[in-house]
Amino acid sequence: MSCPLYVSYHTIGNGYELEAAGLVRTLKAFGLPHVVTGLAREPGGGPWTWQRANLYKAEFIREMQHAYPDRPLVWIDSDARVVQRPRMFDWLGCDVAAHWYRNREMLAGTLFFAPGKTSKAVVTAWIERNHARPDRRRADQPNLMDVIHAWRDLRIVNLPPEYAWIDSGRGDDLSARAYGRRHPVIQHRQASRRLKRRT
User: Fold this and answer.
1) Which side of the chain, N or C, has fewer Cβ within a 10 Å radius?
2) Residue 168 confidence class, pLDDT cut points 50, 70, 90
């Protein structure tokens, strides 16, 4: 399997540029190939809303699948930081990987998609589900979970919590409360709590 490509995007003009710059610094520190893109306006030409920026994730991943059809893709939210080398992505044998928080809720901040028809079909179904159900809370996440749970013969890996560690840096470390103290690999900083009102 070829080396994974780490992908993300961020909206411009609402504070996410600094978050994305922090992500890029950590990707570079570990020598991880990446594409992190800033988008001033949504593809239809209008200004971003928080909901639209959230739902665009699936469309961006599909664009990356088309641009890099032979590469595994690792999506990381732009407010995340890589704090240890994520070696697991170098050898995963699955179609899709994500972390299920407390084995119940799939988190969409760190996602892995293998190259191939199956993962592309999953992302296409995810986009369709987003169009059908855009009104759900953090709609991209439950919509992808619906698609994955309904898919037959999908090879899925539940990533360890260290790969989707939730820590806002304000003492409300959700992952530590659920799993105890561990050493995160990818740490999510929940910037939306601070920046959502600007989008």
Assistant:
1) N
2) low
